[in-house]
Amino acid sequence: MKNSAEVVIIGGGVVGCAIAYNLAKMGCKDVVVLEKEYLTSGATGRCGAGIRQQWGTEMNCRLSKASMDTFEQLNEMLDYPVDIELKQDGYLILAYEEKEIEQFKKNIDLQNRLGIASKLITPPEAQEIVPHLNPEGLLGAAFCGRDGHANPFHVTQAYADAARRLGVKIYTYTECQDIEMKGDKITGVITNRGRINTDKVVNAAGGYSDLIGNMVGLDLPVYSERHQIMVTEPVNPLQGPMVISFYHHFYCQQVPHGAFIMGQGDPNEPRGHNIGHSWQFLQELSQKIGRTFPVLRQLRIVRQWSGLYNMTPDSQPILCEVPEVPGFFLAIGFSGHGFMIAPMTGTVLAEMILGKELSMPVEKLDLGRFDRGELVLEPSVV
Amino acid sequence: MRIKNHPIISFVEKKEVNFRFDGKNLRGQAGEPIAAALHNAGIKVLRHSPRHNRPRGFFCAIGNCSSCLMVVDGKPNVKICVTPLQEGMRVEYQEGKGDIDAGN
C-alpha cells in the first residue's frame, strides 16, 4: 500500500470513485480511494437505481440534469465495455392531493426553466404510460421521459476502472480508522493496513460520513436513516417508467433485467446506522404496491435488503471544503439521491480540490448554510 | 424412467393422469411434481437461460434455482419441481422471462 498521496478519498461508492476519476483526468493522479469493504458495498449498491431530474430545488435540478447528460455518454467517456443499462423511460410521480399538484406545478416551472422537459399530466395520460396503474384516487402526475435507470454497480465499476487506468490506487477492505491532524491541518490518514501521509482528505463515506467528520473534530449536520428495498423475480418488460408517490412513500421500477425493485420511506424510522431488515416492511410495501399495481401481485419477492440515506436538514448534499479544517472536503448528505447526481459531483469536487474554476457553482451547498439559516428545503424525497 | 423398488422408500402407486406438454399428450401420476412426470417421459431440457440461451436441466429440485420455470395453464414462472401434477394441465416451455398476465 502507498504511504503517501496527494488526495485520500474515503468511500468506494459511486461518489468516491467519480471524484477519483475526475481528479486523475484533470492531472492529479496521486490519489488513493479507501473502501472499508468492497466497491458499492454501502449506499450505492443498495440504492433503488433510479436517476431523475424532477427535483424541487435549483441545485438538485442542476446537478441531476448535468449528471444525466454524463450518464448518456458514460460508456464511451469511460471506455467501459459493459452496458451501464441506461434506461430512459421516464419517472412518473403520482399526485393524490391538491397540494401535491400545486407543489408539482412549482417544481415543473423550476425544472422547465432549467431545461428539464417535465410536465404535469392527467390520470388518463398516466395510464397510457403505465397501463397497469390503478387510477383510483389519482389527481394527476408529473412526468419526465428522459429520467430513468442506470446500473449502480456498473457505473461505479466504470469510474473505478477508468480511475485505475489513470493511476489511482483503490484499496478495498481498507478502513479509515483515524485522521491525523497538526493544529487545524491534516497530516495523514490511519487505516487498518497502515498510515498514508496526506494533507487532503475527501469525506465520501455516505451513511458513515458523520463518523469520518468526528475524526477531524467536526459534528457534521447529517444523520443516517435506514431505507428498505425489495426485488421481485424478473419478467419480460411491462413497466416503462419508475413510478413514485410521495403521498404513499413508495417507488417502484422494472429494471432492464426484468425484476421490479421497490422501496418505501418510513416516517417513523429512527436515526442510526442500522441496516437490518424486517418482515413488516415486506407486508406493508406489498400491500401498497398491490393496490397501486394489481398485476404485480402475481410476482414473487426474491430478496430484500436495506441501506442508509445520509440525510441533511434540507435534503440537499453538502459539497465544500470545510473552512475550519483546510484540506477536508465534503461530498456527503446526499439524502437518498447520491447515485443520480454522482457524475456532476465527481466533476465539481475534483475542480474544487484542485482549486480550478467550478463548471457549476455549488456555493449554495456549503456547510455554512445551516448556520446561516439559508435553507432551501427539497420537497421531493421518498 | 421411474424407480419402483427402493431399499428405504416405498412408493405408493398413484392415479394416472393425462396432461399436455409442448403440444404432446403425456401421462404421469397425480400429485407428483410436474418435473418428475417430465423426467419419466425422457424430457431432460426444462428451460433455456434467458441471456445465453443455454439448456437447463433438472437441478435443485426444491424450488430454489429457477432452472425449471415453465408456463403452466398460462401462468409463467411456475417452478415445476415443486408443483403437483393434475389431470389436464397444460405445461409449456417458457420463452425468456415470462409475461405476467395484465388481464388478471
Distinctive features:
heterodimer, A: 382 residues, alpha/beta, FAD/NAD(P)-binding domain, D-Amino Acid Oxidase, Chain A, domain 2, six-stranded mixed beta sheet, 19 strands, globular, B: 104 residues, mainly beta, Ubiquitin-like (UB roll), five-stranded mixed beta sheet, two-stranded antiparallel sheet, 1 helix
Topology diagram in text:
The complex is a heterodimer of chains A (382) and B (104).
Chain A: E1 7-10, H1 14-25, E2 31-34, H2 43-46, E3 50-51, H3 58-71, H4 74-77, E4 91-95, H5 98-113, E5 119-121, H6 123-129, E6 140-144, E7 148-149, H7 152-165, E8 169-171, E9 176-182, E10 185-191, E11 194-197, E12 201-203, H8 209-214, E13 223-232, E14 242-245, E15 250-254, E16 260-264, H9 279-292, E17 301-311, E18 318-321, E19 328-332, H10 338-353, H11 369-372
Parallel strand pairs in A: 1-2, 1-12, 2-8, 4-14, 12-19
Antiparallel strand pairs in A: 3-7, 4-6, 5-6, 9-10, 10-11, 13-16, 13-17, 14-15, 15-16, 18-19
Helix pairs in contact in A: 1-7, 1-10, 3-10
Chain B: E1 16-21, E2 24-29, H1 34-40, E3 47-48, E4 55-56, E5 69-72, E6 75-79, E7 90-93
Parallel strand pairs in B: 1-7
Antiparallel strand pairs in B: 1-2, 3-4, 5-6, 5-7
